[in-house]
Each structure stands twice: as structure tokens, then as C-alpha cells.
């Protein structure tokens, strides 16, 4: 072990650490390393230093272990060094001089990323270092991806279904404004909100928020089985940069263009990327409706006080019971509810609720022309009719949802 170690200066982090104590062709090797890595970019280290360097997270350089002796203590020390380097996640290049096949086999089995004889044949070390560099770059890239994923906060992924039992009862107005109010309510917490229009035929969310219907929506829906996060992102429009919107496609599509599994896949992608996902459902019950209902944490069912709504609600509830769907997540809302002073109206509400066996959790007043105007202009009520009673009630509902999350988070901590 007479070889003097060539210290290549303290420039850190080094690209390579070289264990070459006792290696006969040491000087020629170091010259070669100067050419490959550049002087100062690699470091010769002793076996005693190795532990500290492997433990140092700043030092991510590859490890060259050089050996040209069959002597058992040298072989064992090298084997130990390979093991430790591997345990520290370092890539190992084994550089061998004149070795017996038995020893070579012994060392290779410890797990080396690359292998090169030295000094002959010439060029072999250079090539091995090249391959090692590629492997290291891949490794660093993979680690960076994992690191980025760690940075990306885990999203709450709460799905909120919205369903109108009859056409025109205000489901899309409710869904759109609820999504926007949640976005306003949670903006300080950096939450991400999405609104998905699952009425692939006549969805009106694009109109109510005046956002473009992207070409990619068609692909997303018609090829949902091959869906990925990129395809999903491309299909989303944005309202004021704060609400992501999946509009209905430009051309009306049959509602059964998506299979239940595909709806499930869309919902899963949305859950991963967003904290709240409001889903505006079509009035027709589809084979995938159950999918959305099951995935939802809460499901708002809207109706009006007229006979048409009452009859549809009756049938809807009967369908749910027949499928043995749990009704606990259902929140019944009466839209265009009669005002407090309308006594006959109030009696009527009570009677309808009783006959259906439900309770209305929210009564939304008739908001008059302001509501239709906001919808037609493509802006949420909060922007143009802040004090409208419909807006106020939906804002209260959003506050309730945000508070519930805050309570749950506090409990979890
Ligand atoms: N509470 C309300 N007061 C006044 N107008 C409303 C109210 N709710 C909905 N509207 C209006 O009714 C029309 C139909 O509403 P929409 O949300 O599209 O119904 P749905 O999605 O259930 O078919 C829209 O023009 C909307 O502005
Ligand atoms: Mg609608």
C-alpha cells in the first residue's frame, strides 16, 4: 500500500470518488481520470474516509473501486466498500487490473453498476465512465421527480355532486356558483377547485362562466379509457385562473358515450389534482350516474315546488332505494322557494317534504332576473349580484363546506 494518494483539491461536490489504495497502475489511472472528469472534479479517497463521504448527502458522486490483487484482505475490503456504496445509493464502477476470475466473480456479485479493466484494453475505462454518467443522470432525474411529487401537496379530492330532478330547476346555476364560492372561500389556503360538466349533450357551464369549450374535451370523453393527467389538463378551461372547468364538448354527444369505468377514471384524476370537485349531473339517469353518486361526499339534489319536480324526485328516490344506495350524503335543496311571508307557499313546502319523506336543508329564494342575467353574461353571482339572496345562500353553503374541512384538518393535526 505504498501508493501515495493524489489529492485533487477540495473542490466539492466531486463527480467521482476513487478508492485506489495499492492499485498498481494508479498514476496512469489518475491521469486518465483527470482527462475524463477534469482535475479537481474527482477525489481519491482512503477506505477510512469512505464512510463519511457515503453518509454525506451533498456528495452524490459515483464511486470507483480499483483493485488488482487477489489478496483476501484487499478483496474483502473492496467487497465491503462496494456494499457500503450501494447502501448509500451510489453507483459503483469496478476497475480491475490483473485479477483471478474467482475474485472478479466475488466482487461483481456485490452489485456494481459498471465494470472496466485497466489499463488494457485502452478506451474501456472511458466507455464505462460514459455509461456510468448516463446512469447517474437517470438516477438524479428519477430522484428529482420523487422530490417534486413530495412538494406537491396531497389534495383533498372531495367530490360534490349536483343534480336537478327536472330540467331548469337551477342545478347548473347552483353547481357553477357553488364551485366559484368555494374557490373564493378557500383561496387563502391555496386550494384547487374544479367544476366538471357531465351533461355531455347540453351542458351549460361553459355558457354560465363564459369559458371556451376545448377541443380536447371531445377526446377526453370519447377516449376516456386511455386517459391520463395530461389529457385531462388539456381538456380543462380556467375561469379567472382560480376555477378549473371541464365544459361539455362543442358538439352534443350521447350521454352513454362514457362507460362507468371511464367516468370513474375521470373522477380519480380530478380527485388527485383538486381539493373540491363539483360535478354538474345531467337530468337523465345513466349507467354511470351511480359512479358519481358513490364517489361523492355530498350530493345536492335540487327541485322546485311544482308537481313535475315532486314527481321526479319521488321517482329518483325510488330508484336510489331500489339500488340500495345510501341516502345520508343526499342534501335536498328547494330552488325558487316561496318567501317567508308566503304562508300558503310555506305550507305547500312542508306538505311536499312530508309526502316525499325528505327534509329540505337549503331553501334558495327566487333571485329574479339578476340570476338569469348573470348566467347569460357568463359570470358568477358573486361578481355581479353580490347581495342577491341566491348568491348569499350559496355562499353560506360554501362557507359551511370550507369550515368543515378546517375542522377536520385541525382534528387530524
Ligand atoms: N333561484 C333562482 N332565481 C332566479 N333564476 C334562477 C334561479 N335558479 C336558476 N335560475 C335561472 O333558471 C334558468 C335555468 O337554470 P339552470 O341552472 O340552467 O337549470 P338546470 O341546470 O337545472 O337545467 C337559468 O336561466 C337560471 O339563471
Ligand atoms: Mg343544467
Mean pLDDT: 91
CATH topology of the largest domain: Rossmann fold
Q: In the CATH classification, which architecture of the largest domain applies? A: 3-Layer(aba) Sandwich
Low-confidence stretches: 1-11
Strand count: 13
- The neighbouring-strand order within the major sheet is 8-9-7-10-6-11-12-13
- CA-CA gap between termini: 58 Å
User: Secondary-structure element order, as H and E?
Assistant: EHEHEHEHEHEHEHHHEEHEHEHEHEHHH
Q: Kindly report the name of the CATH homologous superfamily of the largest domain.
A: P-loop containing nucleotide triphosphate hydrolases
Give your account of this protein's structure:
- By secondary structure, this protein is an alpha/beta fold.
- It folds into 2 domains: 16-151, 3-Layer(aba) Sandwich (Rossmann fold), CATH 3.40.50.2300; 158-412, P-loop containing nucleotide triphosphate hydrolases (Rossmann fold), CATH 3.40.50.
- It is 47% helix and 16% strand.
- It has an 8-stranded mixed beta sheet with strand order 8-9-7-10-6-11-12-13, with helices on both faces. Strands 2-1-3-4-5 form a 5-stranded parallel beta sheet, sandwiched between helices.
- Strand 12, helix 13 (343-356) and strand 13 (360-365) form a beta-alpha-beta unit.
- Mean pLDDT is 91; it is low at 1-11.
- Bound molecules: adenosine-5'-diphosphate and magnesium ion.
- Adenosine-5'-diphosphate binds at residues 164, 167-173, 204, 335-336, 364, 366-368, 371-372, 375, 390.
